[in-house]
Amino acid sequence: MMKKVLPVLILMACALHLQASYILLPMDPEGQKDHLKAYGITYWVLNNEVEAWWLLNYRGGSFAFPYSRVFEKECLTRGVSYEVLADGQFNAILDEIADPEVNMEAMKLEKAPKIAVYTPDQNARGEKIQPWDDAVTMVLTYAEIPYETVYDTEVIGDELVKYDWLHLHHEDFTGQYGRFYRNYHNQPWYRENQRKMEELAATLGFAKVSQLKLSVVKKIKEYVVGGGFMFAMCSATDTYDIALAAEGVDICAEMYDGDPVDPNAQEKLDYSKTFAFEDFQLERNPLEYEYSNIDHFRGRDAMVKSDQDYFTLFDFSAKWDPVPTMLTQNHTRTVKGFMGQTTAFRNPVIKSNVLILGETKPAREARYIHSEYGQGFFTFYGGHDPEDYRHYVQDPETDLSLHPNSPGYRLILNNILFPAAKKKKRKT
Fold it and tell me: What average pLDDT is seen over the chain?
């Protein structure tokens, strides 16, 4: 009797697997135990040359892809919640999303983007020159999404064409070494960083670090114009635009580049060259830990208390505005704020063509902005670490295994997957 039953059970199991045509990674608060690693699974599927779906506004922006035992095992291995769906169940979800009355959309993800992180090298002892961590590299590592690093030599050498997506580390593109002079100029790491940057600038044919950084931002601008996607956080946002606006103008004090600031620097700024900001005022005190009034810092503490510091994500039409909808996918519309050298962008200095994705309305500031530029795109995200409200130099890195459902980190990963939703010609 047992011999007769066993083949029947095997056939039934095979039939069930044939019906299990899709894996759904739910991204709502209740359905997903590790939102961050779910992005890594989706990237891994794409990297295995299998297309996936991004179900915008469906259960927190869920992902789906064809069923495979290998994919299911990987979900189990990485601790990502998943549901196995039959063909009919998945088609019913697509029908629900297609209803013109609901604010949802199904986006096909076609190819894993090749990712580069612009970040400084380590010194000869293998130590980090800059004693602070980077949210993007931390979340890429935690989500198990591969990336490569580039810095000034590679950018000047036109190597950005190899990549679809570029993240700018917390760089000071004005050549003022983060304006850390007052508090840290006697620290060994600060002196070593300045020495190495001056040496690198000379090696690449530049008299000053500020001139090297200007050439770097112009190369990155060419990359974006040609179809690249650039993402920046913290001081890499405002210093990028300040460097572009100050082309040909000395805005560095003597302790940074050996000679005085141009006394007419403010009047010589050209805002037409910038990505996101205009009409901003430079911070003239070279010892002040700020570059300009792009960052909302003066008086902010009186307006936004730390325990009430949240920003709100805008709701966009998924069918008519799929790009900002992708970038704001989350399991909550309210995200805990976090500080950085550049925390938030004052609304009056944001260009009218730039889309505000997230804002702290009472403070009249934007935290998360995006726009097209040429054939490409850029996103600026204020703050340093979404799970460390005040992150100081030499503070320990955030352990993301303690924050697997972080809404603030999800916004970073939205940007990483966004290029996969659009076919692009390889930039040559």
Answer: 90
Q: Measured in whole angstroms, how far is the alpha carbon of residue 418 from the centre of its chain?
A: 11
What whole-number distance in Å separates Cα of residue 390 and Cα of residue 384?
A: 8
Burial 271-296 (b: 16+ CB within 10 A, else e): eeebbbbbebebbeebeeebbbbbbb
Distance of CA 269 to the CA centre of its chain: 27
Tokens of 22: 């899709």
Nearest alpha carbon to residue 341 among 120, 192, 130, 195 = 130
Closest CA to 255 of 293, 300, 214, 209: 209
Q: Which two tokens stand for residue 318?
A: 């998924």
What's the CA dihedral at 62, 63, 64, 69 to 10 degrees? -110
385, 136 in Cβ contact below 8 A? no
Tell me the one-letter amino acid at 108: K
The pTM (predicted TM-score) of the whole model is: 0.91
Tell me, what's the pLDDT at 298?
64
Q: Tokens in use for 277?
A: 């900001």
* Residue 261: DSSP 8-state: P
Non-local (6+) Cβ contacts of 345 within 8 A are 237, 238, 276, 277, 294, 295, 296, 365, 366, 367, 369, 380, 382
Structure tokens at 314: 């805008």
**Is residue 349 within 8 Å of residue 300, measured between CB atoms?**
no
The yes-or-no verdict on residue 130 having pLDDT over 70 is no
Q: How many angstroms separate the Cα of 394 from the Cα of each of 67, 168, 181, 306?
A: 44, 20, 16, 21
Output the six-digit token pair for 279: 């009409």
